Amino acid sequence: MTTDSPARLARLLNLVDREDEHLLGVRERLLAGDCSVSPDRVRGILAADSGIDRLESFGAKFGRMQDTIMDKLVPAFLTCAGEKPGPAIDNLARLEKLGLIEQADDWLQMRHLRNRLVHEYIENPDDLAPALQRACHFTDRMHTDYQRLRGYARDRLAIEVPGNTGN
Fold first, then answer.
1. Residues 6+ apart with CB under 8 A from 102
2. pTM, whole model, 2 decimals?
3. Per-residue pLDDT, 114
4. Could you report how far apart the first and last alpha carbons of the chain are, in Å?
């Protein structure tokens, strides 16, 4: 463990707090609290410039938060917990075994959704609808798992985390 790993973890938690808040906010503006997404609903979203902007923002924020957690936060978290980080799939399996994330497979599926959210809406709303619906639900999974990691870092690793968001 490097001497700055607790400080790095605290900075990453602060960053993901903001990403989480922004992702939940844009999801609300895009889908108004309803994760049921049909092809007709997607066509309605794409009919307005503001809908396209919100969809693009949601896709970008979904991908960014997922990337930050998997590629930066999880390795820093494991290091501070005295674990040796490895490949993402191994890190996720370790967190699942520790009860800190619900299902590692969900996180792998989230990773596959990124390109669909960003690119497929241009070509086929029929394909985008189920992807957007899954991403909407995965946003809740990401939020819940992140809050569990955040709480563990605060309570068990003595990482100073500002505020008390999302609990």
1. 96, 141, 144, 145
2. 0.90
3. 81
4. 29
